[in-house]
Amino acid sequence: MKELTIRKSEKPITREELNLFIDTYNLKLPNSYIEFILKNNGGYSSESLFGSSIEEGVVIDSFFSIRPNLGDFSNNLGRLVNVKKILENNIKDKDLPFDIYPFGDGGGGTFLCISMNNESLGKIYKYYWDGSGLQYVCDSFEEFIEGLE
C-alpha cells in the first residue's frame, strides 16, 4: 500500500488494544485499515484528495484516531477525533448506520466510512450527516489510500 506522510498522529495503539477495540464493537475491518491504524493512529495526510478534482473528488481532512482509554470526541486543542467516541455516541443516539465504520473526516459534515455490511464489505463511502445517506467512493481502503493525491 502507498506510504502517506501523516502529521500529528496520536500515540501508537498496540495490536492487543486494537483487537480489544474491534471485539468490543464487533467490527469487521480490512487488514489494510488495521495495518494503517497500527502504523499511524490517525492524523493529517499531505495527500488528501481522492478523485480528479475537488468538485468531483473526495477530500479527507483527517484520519480519526483510536484512543482506547481517552474520551474526547471533539477536535479541540488540536486533538484528533477519537473514533471510539463516535461509535459510543452512535450506540446511544443511533445517528450513524451500524454497518459502517467511520475512519476519517470528509469535511462539510461528512465522514469517510468503511462498509461492514456483508453485501458491500470493505467498500468506502462518504456519509452525510444531513440525512442524505451514503455516497460510494471506491471498492477498498487500499484503493482509497492509493488514489490520494
TrEMBL record:
SUPFAM superfamilies: SMI1/KNR4-like (SSF160631). InterPro entries: Knr4/Smi1-like_dom (IPR018958), Knr4/Smi1-like_sf (IPR037883). Residues 12-147 form the Knr4/Smi1-like domain. Pfam families: SMI1_KNR4. This is SMI1/KNR4 family protein. It comes from Tenacibaculum tangerinum. The lineage of its organism: Bacteria, Pseudomonadati, Bacteroidota, Flavobacteriia, Flavobacteriales.
